[in-house]
From TrEMBL:
Any GO molecular function: 3-oxoacyl-[acyl-carrier-protein] synthase activity
Span of domain Beta-ketoacyl-[acyl-carrier-protein] synthase III N-terminal: 119-187
Protein name as catalogued: 3-oxoacyl-[acyl-carrier-protein] synthase III
UniProt-listed InterPro entries: ACP_syn_III_C, ACP_syn_III_N, Thiolase-like
EC number per UniProt: 2.3.1.41
Protein keywords: Acyltransferase, Transferase
Amino acid sequence: MDIGILAEAYYLPPSKKKVQDILDAENIPFGTFAKNVDFRRDIGIEEVHVTDEMPSEVAVKTAKNVISKSGISGSEIDLIIDFTSLPQDYIGPTWSAAGLVQEAIGADRAFCTALTVGGCASYHFAMRSALALMRSDEKINTVLLVAGDRTPDLNKTYYPITVASDGGGALILKKGCDRAVILGIETISIGRLHDVWYVPGLGRKKPDEEASETLIHMYCNMKKFNEGVIIRNFFMFRKVINKLLSRIGMTMDDIDYFVYPTFSTWDQKYFCEALNIPREKVSTEGLRHRGHVQESDMVINYARAVEDGAIKKGDIVMVVSNGAGFAWSAVVVRH
């Protein structure tokens, strides 16, 4: 039985902040790094969305948006998966926003869980997990995937890749849905790059170190980034894309549109050049005035492309991402 995306929706806080103000406040360096990229010059983001809301509040608003758009009620949902990739309201092994979302939307019979370790690839990890559960359990017919992020103050910049925006994205997957039918999904990872980006947390506090907010800030190992990620990134994209296309019997020529994260202009440029994809076939609209909304980029960029007419009924769409962890992922849908 086909499984499709019944609806996708997002929430972006109305308040915004200028990226140059963020870069100055966070003391982001000038100058070039790998591939002669200057982060400040080549990022291509002018402003991002910011909020003082808790991440769970963002997730709840996002979930309510997708419920409203889908036309179903919360009581019809069998499973809720929270795929937020950043630390949330509480930092602990047993908490996610899924239960709070369940209560807020009246999904009284849904099972709640989270899958939050794939960085921006958590979108694909959550979707792949949902598909496996839906196919193995006849009682799981409708699934809500939801994420909500609020980046900590003075930690909006993920140098040297992007500047993060607050916001959320959500999908409803449904058996027998003929809209955005999921044709295949693949994920691959390189475990030794697990700590290219990381959030230390209080567990990493040294005995004589004062507890501070910086312990929940993102850190980048620039040496590992340059030597581990940069030189392998597009090789791994080709690998995961080719693996997926081979399995579903398609080629790159069959893909009408690509949904890709809004990291930066230089990253989008290299993605298109490395994979020989025309820029007009790749989602870029949100970069300048929104920036990178973590794992929700894939939801938001898909939804905006549908709203703008870039994705039309019957189009074959590939949604791709990479994520700190470190993973590469792709899914193909027939819209």
